[in-house]
Amino acid sequence: MTKKTISLDLDAYERLCCARLQPDESFSQVIKRARWDPPPSTGAALLAALQRGPLVDEATIQRLEAAQREDAPPEDSSTEQP
């Protein structure tokens, strides 16, 4: 199995040690059991994402705008006369 060396600060190391279920459990096993909550959805997170740049490219925006201009409402069958 390939291994990768990582650096941990003392607090992270101690937390890993405390998270062991058994003294011989490896840090890899502890990490694989870990569950991290997704980051909270906040207005600040949305603003940061928007400031990183456009979410779609200009060509896509132009195609969507053209499709909206060309889109006609459906005929209303309730007002049609026989």
Any overview of this molecule?
This protein has helices at 10-19, 27-33, 43-51, 58-70. With 82 residues, the protein is mainly alpha-helical. The protein has a domain at 43-70. The longest helix has 13 residues, at 58-70. The chain is elongated and about 80 Å long. The termini are far apart.
Provide a short characterization of the protein structure.
With 82 residues, this protein is mainly α. Helix content is 48%, strand content 0%. It has a domain of 28 residues.
Labels describing this entry:
48% helix, single chain, mainly alpha, 82 residues, 4 helices
Radius of gyration: 27 Å
| Unreliable sequence segments | none
Share of β-strand residues: under 5%
Percent range for helical residues?
40-55%
Q: Mind describing the biggest β-sheet?
A: none
Structural class: mainly alpha
**Total beta strand runs:** 0
How are the SSEs ordered, and which strands pair?
Elements: H1 10-19, H2 27-33, H3 43-51, H4 58-70
